[in-house]
Amino acid sequence: MFSSLYQQEVEATSERVKRGFKMRIKQGEAIGLQKTYGYDYEPKTKALQVNEEEAKWVHYIFDQYCEGYGGTVIARKLSEMGVASPRGRDVWEASTVRGIIRNQIYIGNVVMGKSYILDPISKKKVDNHGERDMHILKDHHEPIIEIQTLRER
């Protein structure tokens, strides 16, 4: 009996949180930006500011990618140069580099809803491949990478 009540309450709470997120998104508020490599997050204004030290490595990643190098090679080069990864580690992972290359945040856009919680009880998180709505805030903040520069390469 208690388990079914617990499950109902968890599901109701999950729905309230989802509604709150949707309302904040409709108001133009970006959610989940606190840990974005290349940017510093200002909690009071909820704004992203370019972190110049990290931004130079974001530029390096995109430059190397445009020259034809893949995530594995770029990650190895960054590790060999002693550049700290986004998590502060000495070794970069190819998946981290690929994630930076694919992330629209670096051209000034914020994409929300790239993943979602499949089940509020297990809290299993899955990638969104169109099953749920995604929201894009275009020109939300100062880009590190100019889209025109990428197109010209």
Mean pLDDT: 86
Number of helical stretches of at least 4 residues: 5
The helix-and-strand class reads alpha+beta
Kindly provide the radius of gyration, computed on alpha-carbon positions and rounded to a whole number of angstroms.
18 Å
Strand content: 15-25%
Widest sheet, order of strands:
1-2
**Low-confidence region ranges:** none
- Topology order in helix (H) and strand (E) letters: HEEHHHEEEEH
Morphology: globular
Oligomer: single chain
What does this structure look like?
The chain has 153 residues and is of the alpha+beta class. The protein contains five helices and six strands; from the N terminus they run H-E-E-H-H-H-E-E-E-E-H. The strands form three sheets. Strands 1-2 form a two-stranded antiparallel sheet. A two-stranded antiparallel sheet has the order 3-6. Helix 3 packs across helix 4. It is globular and about 55 Å long. The model has no long low-confidence stretch (mean pLDDT 86).
